[in-house]
Amino acid sequence: MSIFDKIKAAVTPAPALELHDIQATLLFDRPDPYFGTHVLLRIDTPEGGRTLLSRLAPHVRSAADARGNDAAWIAVALSHGALVALEVPAASLESFPDTFREGMAARADRLMDTGANAPEHWEAPYGSGQVHVTVSIFAPDEASWRQAMDTARSQFDALQGVTLLGSHDFGAQPDSRNPFGYRDNISNPAIEGSPMPAAPSPDPAIKAGEFILGYPGESGVPLAMPSPPELGRNGSFVVLRKYRADAAAFNRFLRDNAETPQQQELLAAKLVGRWRSGAPLTLAPERDDPALGADRQRNNDFGYGDDQAGLQAPPGCHIRRMNPRDSKLAVLTDVNLHRIARRSTTFGPPWRADLLEDDGAERGLFFIGLSARAHATTEFMQQEWINHGNFVDLGKERDPIVGTQPEDSTYTIPQCPVRRRIHGIHSFCTLRGGEYLFMPSLSALHWLSQPNPHKQAIFR
Fold first, then answer.
1. pTM of the model
2. Which of 9, 67, 233, 419 is deepest in the core (most CB within 10 A)?
């Protein structure tokens, strides 16, 4: 992109987003606290699949109707197998990226999903090709969650030609704490033109086309999108990855490598880049500041420009790997091209500081990432930022939270006069399954629900 193109893109007004046609989940964070369910469905007949989408579409919330997180909403995403089952024409199927058509399990080598994370160890039905439709319900309270779940269930219960493969409830109260006890869902990219109020951050708003198909991206032009436009425009791509979290192993690691409770909490913060309250180390380097952690106007408003050596937030900590911000990277990378909107959800009992042995409870999280290139971005992050350390001069060192750790892995904490290197860090998260999905616009859901959709377009 030439300097003239960049100037033109900078001064050209961004096109208004067609909010009435975009699923709310693309632009709005989930509630806090939250309740919800992920439902997995298989399409057995084209007629059954079309009926399902026609029933669900009126209940899918649009971004125009999601001015706040005070009500429940339903989101729908489809796999490549769903489009095949719906008899979408071959020309349209071929217009989708190879990553989507091949699916997550087939790309395990690119995702570095090996060993315990390999597809042969995944829970059914993930990776089997049977997951065609995911229906996700997000709600701010239990009553609205149950009501939305009843609404969703009534659309597919006893529907001929559609099979319920499974469902999984999730939620976290209070403060969206994840399985390791950290406040979650703090840092999400600001999307240009979004009605979602952006929390203060030094990161610039990113062009809408990096997240929603049919709009200019960071290069000034729209990314390639599936055809026809009735199918692709105002949609996006989704990465769904289910992780089991070993909270007991995490607690033992802290105990074994720090002497006092205070030192254990500091070590925990050094692994993540934030204290459990959500306060970033860059703004609270010595002790936790719960008021800062709870303040959306302050808890994400920082950079790493004054901490390039990582004396406050280590270069290898989780949040710095996932968004290096203004860090000086050893491998030149345009960070804005690798941002992803996260709608991750936690499941299982809340974290406990005294949990040192497996209590048999299932704890974990669903990583849900959305963008116009979500699949390629996730593969890049898995290869370069999560399971490698060259981009921050850390060699083979991996992400301390979600990285797959080989035997005798290390984690480096810069400090003066000599850095500290901790040996024997474990894999605290194990992949239990996942899928590559497409999140259609509301009009595309209607388009797909019609017989011979390639012949009968429904326009906005």
1. 0.93
2. 233
